[in-house]
Each structure stands twice: as C-alpha cells, then as structure tokens.
User: Which sequence fits this backbone?
C-alpha cells in the first residue's frame, strides 16, 4: 500500500479555534491522511490562525511565513483567514486561504493540492475524533458565531451570527468524550448563555429523553455524566443566574467565566454591553449567596476610546468590591473593522498599557488574598503533568491554560489524568502548592496507632 500523504498542522488562537483544528484533524485522519509532526515530513501544512488582536495577527502571519520557509506548501484557515487580502498581501505564495469554522473549504483545498488516498480501512477513527488536548480533558463546542455586536469585537463579522448545535448532538459528543477518558468537559462557544436562542430552544433527544436546547438544561444534562463540567464565555444575561443553583448542588463546577469588560455604565454602553458595575456587583453577591464556593473569572478592557481617569477608577473600585478570583485584562486594541475605532477620544498606546498594568497590579493583590483563604484546606485536584516525583494539577477553580495551577510535591505515583486530594500549604497570586492530603491522613493515622497501648 502506498504511504499515506502527510499533512502538517499548526493550531493558533483560542479554544474555539482549537476545536476547529480538532475537526479538521479528525476529517484528515478519517480520510486516510497522516499527520506529520515536522515541516520536512509533511506534503503540505495547514495553519489555523487567530486574528483577534494585532499581536495575534502578527503571530499568525509569522507562523505562515515560517511554514512557507520550512515546507513551501501552505493552506491558511481560521480567523485571520477571514481577512484573505492581509494574508495574500504578506504571503502571496500560500496555496489557499479560508475563514474560520470552514471545515469543508479546508478539505476542498487539501484535496486539490494533496489528493485523498484510496484506502477504506484508514477511515477508522475513534468516535470522539482527534483531540489536541490531553486525554483527561476536552473542549465541547456548543455553538458557533454570536448575535451581539460589541463595538470592540469583529468576531460576528468573522464567524457570523449564532448557530447552536442541537442538544442531542452535543450530549452524544460529550458522552463519547467521557467514554474516551475525558474527566473534565470545558463548554465553549462565543456566547454560552445564548445557547439555543437561534433554535428557539428546540427539543431534541438524548438517550430517548427529550431535552431543550437551553444553557440550564444542557448544564444539568452534562452534570449527569459524572465528570467536571466547566462553563466558559458566559455572557452576563440575567438568565445565567439559573445555572448557579446547579453549581451549588455540585452538578457542574462552581466556576463561571463571565466577561464583564468594564464597570462604568457609560463605557459599557459605548461597548454595547449590558448592565453596569453596580448591577454586576448585586449579581455577584447573589451568586455567592447561593454558591459560596463559586470561582468567578472575568476579563476587562482598559483604555477603551474616551475612557476618563474617573471611569477607569470606577473599574478599579468595582474590582476591589467584586473580589473576583481570576481576571484577565487587555489594553484596548483597535482591531481593524471594529466600530469602537470610530469613537472619539482614542487613548495613546502608553496610557492604555499603563491602565492595563494598574488594573493587573491591583488584581494580583486581590487574587493573592482570595487564594490565601485556601491555605490549610484539602482540595480535589485533577493531575495534568507528573515528573520526577512532582506533579502539577488543577482544582475546580482552575481552567487549563488561563488560570493558575496546583503544584504537588513528593507524589511519585501520580500520573496525568489522576484525581487526588491536596492539602494546600502555600499560595501566591496565581498558584497553590501543597502535599497529598491522603498521605497526611495516613501519617496521622499511623502516628495515632503508634501511641496506642
Ligand atoms: S459577545 Fe463576545 S463574540 Fe459576541 S460580539 Fe461581544 S465580544 Fe464579540
């Protein structure tokens, strides 16, 4: 049998892009292509790009340039691919350019430049598809696109309006992932709270049981799979409050990733975002009232056009009062095509960056305070890496890649994907350090038995 044609793959960008990459890799393997880990072993290279902010555009253009220099035959897809002219102007030699979430177009380009092998046996791929994440956690994409029009964002023009997947299909994929070893499912989309709006919350079936395409119903059904379920990109709609009781009942992780973006009512209005800092403080208090252990992660933009020093301070005050656990902050980046670029009062790069740094400096102190409260507690941890008697894992409060981790000392038997209990001994603004809680218990038990007459 002839050797399978080989495709190299570079995946850049956010978890949504990662899921697109997994879809393309799954199709490539299903059709009998081999995946090459190196440029020189590949017959062509697919680069899945990110175009969210200027630095991501530059990184993507750099990756395409590297693939062209090392291999010479390159197909570009992803968010930057939606701006085909930028890619083609910089790299006229690319074979093809497609936008994001464009599986069929990418496959058509691959077929054109590297014909599909004819071997029916290579069509066999595992039911969960090809995953780029470790076996013990997986991203579960529930929808594509977004119906909002936040003025700083061009995602709707790149990825289109919201298209939700039927709930039965999402649940079957989730089940397959769990059967294949996933112990944590990370629910992603552009706007998780809007799930099902476009389907008018249509009923679908899972295991013969009717389920409505609504975020609360989906979260409850996922909670039955017996794994960690983590909700990301939860737009702050009022009905999000419905999922908090599920967290209090232990059905989904007490963790919410909710981008507030700002606290000033005027700036939020200019951003075309809902609510105000005051409204959000009220909701955070209510969430903590229902689920005291909830970890709240959010993102903000500092230096939005026209943001005054007072408005920025309002944001800092909000952070002081909200005491969020995890915070990310971007200095406003004028992405080409974003409506906010037309607003008056653009701030200088230096001022935007200075405000971002001030915000992160304050938040570091808040995060450190929040983490300190865990000292002495024993927490459940999912191990991500283990080497030389040490391990790194994550607790319910830590999403992979974006949050902190739990460092575990002296644990030679642990391996990636294990659950363990860790007694927390030390903390900083991001991470925790601890030792095996179970060993502590054993030590105490044996010390007690030595004292027995
Ligand atoms: S909700 Fe998110 S994806 Fe949608 S427009 Fe706003 S920032 Fe962009």
Assistant:
């Amino acid at each position: 049998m002839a050797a399978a044609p080989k495709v190299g793959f570079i995946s850049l960008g956010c978890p949504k892009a990662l899921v697109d990459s997994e879809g393309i890799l799954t199709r490539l393997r299903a059709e009998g292509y081999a995946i090459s880990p190196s440029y020189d072993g590949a017959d062509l290279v697919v680069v899945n790009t990110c175009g969210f902010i200027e630095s991501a555009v530059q990184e993507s253009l750099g990756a395409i340039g590297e693939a062209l220099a090392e291999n010479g035959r390159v197909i570009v897809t992803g968010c930057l691919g939606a701006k085909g002219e930028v890619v083609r102007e910089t790299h006229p030699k690319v074979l093809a350019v497609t936008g994001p979430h464009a599986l069929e177009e990418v496959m058509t380009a691959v077929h054109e430049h590297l014909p599909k092998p004819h071997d029916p046996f290579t069509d066999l791929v595992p039911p969960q598809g090809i995953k780029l994440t470790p076996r013990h956690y997986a991203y579960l994409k529930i929808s594509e696109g977004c119906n909002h029009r936040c003025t700083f964002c061009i995602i709707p023009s790149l990825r289109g309006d919201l298209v939700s997947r039927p709930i039965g299909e999402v649940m079957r994929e989730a089940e397959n992932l769990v059967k294949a070893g996933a112990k944590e499912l990370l629910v992603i989309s552009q706007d998780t709270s809007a799930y099902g709006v476009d389907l008018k919350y249509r009923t679908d079936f899972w295991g013969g049981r009717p389920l409505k395409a609504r975020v609360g119903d989906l979260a409850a059904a996922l909670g039955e799979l017996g794994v960690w379920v983590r909700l990301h990109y939860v737009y702050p709609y009022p009905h999000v409050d419905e999922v908090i009781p599920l967290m209090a009942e232990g059905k989904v992780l007490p963790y919410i990733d909710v981008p507030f973006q700002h606290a000033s009512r005027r700036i939020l209005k200019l951003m075309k975002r809902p609510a105000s800092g005051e409204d959000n403080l009220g909701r955070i208090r209510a969430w903590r009232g229902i689920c005291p252990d909830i970890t709240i992660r959010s993102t903000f933009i500092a230096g939005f056009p026209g943001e005054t020093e007072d408005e920025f301070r309002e944001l800092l005050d909000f952070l002081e009062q909200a005491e969020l656990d995890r915070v990310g902050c971007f200095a406003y980046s004028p992405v080409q095509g974003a409506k906010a670029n037309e607003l008056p009062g653009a701030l200088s790069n230096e001022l935007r960056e200075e405000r971002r740094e001030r915000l992160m400096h304050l938040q570091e102190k808040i995060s450190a305070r929040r983490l300190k409260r865990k000292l002495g507690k024993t927490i459940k941890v999912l191990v991500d890496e283990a080497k030389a008697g040490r391990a790194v894992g994550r607790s319910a409060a830590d999403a992979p890649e974006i949050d902190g981790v739990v460092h575990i000392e002296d644990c030679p038997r642990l391996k990636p994907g294990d659950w363990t209990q860790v007694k927390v001994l030390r903390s900083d603004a991001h991470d925790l350090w601890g030792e095996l809680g179970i060993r502590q218990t054993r030590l105490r038990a044996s010390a007690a038995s030595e004292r027995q007459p």
